[in-house]
Amino acid sequence: MSEGAIFGSVRGIGDPIDKPHGMRWATFDRKMSQVEAAEAVCNAHLVRFVQKLSWS
């Protein structure tokens, strides 16, 4: 089962993620912080990639 399925979002990128029934809020908040940190890394890499494309 994917992380998206665990967190209640199997629709795609950008869709809201619901807290799964039975998961504690502290756990959900910690996991969401990890997801947000990973998104920040991906966004930074995307910005660098687009900058390299525009310089070519």
Largest sheet: none
Radius of gyration: 15 Å
Percent of residues in beta strands:
under 5%
Which secondary-structure class do the elements indicate? mainly alpha
Per the principal axes of the C-alpha atoms, what is the gross shape?
elongated
The run of helices and strands is HH
In angstroms, what separates the terminal alpha carbons?
Answer: 41 Å
Number of strands: 0
Uncertain regions spanning at least 5 consecutive residues: none
The proportion of residues forming helix, as a percent range, comes to 55-70%
Helix count from the secondary structure assignment: 2
**Overall pLDDT metric:** 84
Description:
With 56 residues, the protein is mainly α. It has two helices and no strands. The protein is elongated and about 50 Å long.
Short description:
With 56 residues, the chain is mainly alpha-helical. Helices cover 62% and strands 0% of the residues.
SSE layout and pairing:
Blueprint (H helix, E strand, L loop, with lengths): L2 H4 L18 H31 L1
